[in-house]
Amino acid sequence: MRGFALFFFGIASAILCACGGSEKGFDGHVYRDGRIAFRVGEVPSTWHRIDVTDASLAFRDDSHQASILLNARCGERDDDVPLVSLTGQLIMGTTERDYGKEETIPFDGREARHTTLKAKLDGVLLSYDIYVEKKDGCIYDFVYVSPPDQAASASEFERFVGDFRTLGTEHEIYATSGSKQ
Q1: Res. 155 pLDDT band, cuts 50 70 90
Q2: What is the pTM of this model?
Q3: Burial profile 7-35: b = 16 or more Cβ within 10 angstroms, e = fewer
Q4: Residue ranges per structural domain of the chain
Q5: Cα dihedral sign, 177-23-10-85
Q6: 2-177 under CATH 3.40.1000.10, yes or no
Q7: What is the mean pLDDT of the chain?
Q8: Average pLDDT of 70-89?
Q9: What is residue 176's three-state secondary structure?
Q10: What is the pLDDT of residue 170?
Q11: Cα–Cα distance for residue pair 26/177, rounded to 1 Å
């Protein structure tokens, strides 16, 4: 399922999908959907929301021909799968992989797997920047996909990911968003 979701996401990137999406409890800083609650930093002004199946949040940055995915899920059967394997599931369907970074880093009070690579999806060479975190029974995937010559714009993605925080209680959600919704 994860591989299919990324495959769909990659196709959306390739055809420059700019469809509007439903808000699913996102106020621009805090996302809530049932058990899942998290805060993100400022969304860059060049990013606009798109609707992608099986994603919590997805954005398109037309100025850099990039697509950005943040997916969160809790209580799935792959909770015990290592971060390296979860990352591998995200790039299923790609070929000719050329890895840049493969590292485990501190992230939101846990560890995350950070991977950069260039790979082909349906014969199209793309650059990927991926973070995967497991925390409190949930898995969080962050994916930035762009043409290789646009990968330098990933610094905005790194800031966006760096400001990510899970929110475990209603008090944390209220304190972060400033309003009860």
Answers
A1: confident
A2: 0.79
A3: bebbebbbeebeeeeeeeebeeebbbeee
A4: 2-177
A5: positive
A6: yes
A7: 82
A8: 87
A9: helix
A10: 47
A11: 10
For residues 113 and 161, the answer to whether their CB atoms sit within 8 Å is no
Q: What is the pLDDT of residues 13-55, one digit of tens each?
A: 443 333 333 345 899 899 999 889 999 988 999 999 998 888 8
Tokens of 92: 């299923």
128 DSSP β-pair partners: 117, 145
CB 99 within 8 A of CB 119: no
Sign of CA dihedral 158, 162, 168, 171: negative
The contacts of residue 43 (CB under 8 Å, 6+ apart) are 28, 59, 160
Contact between 41 and 162 under an 8 Å Cβ cutoff? The reply is: yes
**pLDDT one-digit tens code per residue, 129-141:** 999 999 988 999 9
Which pair of tokens denotes residue 117? 């690579």
Rounded to the nearest 5°, which phi and psi values hold at 73?
Answer: -150, 150
Query: Which of 108, 120, 112, 163 lies closest to 145, judged by CA?
Result: 120
Using CA atoms, how far residue 113 sits from 33, 56, 104, 116, in Å, is 24, 19, 5, 10
